[in-house]
Amino acid sequence: MRVRSAALATAAGAALLLLAAPAPAPAAPAAPDDARLVAESVTVDPIGRIAADGSVTLSGTYRCTGGTGPVFVSSNVSQGDQSVRYGIGGTRAVCDGLEHRWVNTGTPDTVVLEPGAAHVEATLMELRPTGIVPLPSFHARQARDVTLTAS
User: What is the DSSP letter of 59?
Assistant: First the structure.
């Protein structure tokens, strides 16, 4: 009987020690994938270039994470009336969470742009497959005033 009492006392003591012991610290949460930590963005450089042939070159940076369809950086420019915009090329984007440069060159069809103040908008846009027709999904956008210089 004495052995049985000693075993019960030992078990009860062990249970009390377990209850009194501090809870183990929770495991650190798994670090999220770095790509999810990075915000998607697009920037426009403050200077654009106009070549002698009238073509315009705009540039900047972008950062995006994975998409389900092709992603592009598009840009447009306006001078004077900002409601009239001229598309200036498009660049295929690599969405790996890293910062990349984009450069778009194009010639507006109906106007000759002049060196000086202009307004540029860049858009990071994905063509997401949904049904029969891919639909645009916008990742980031920046609009800013720039200076167009003759190159």
Answer: E
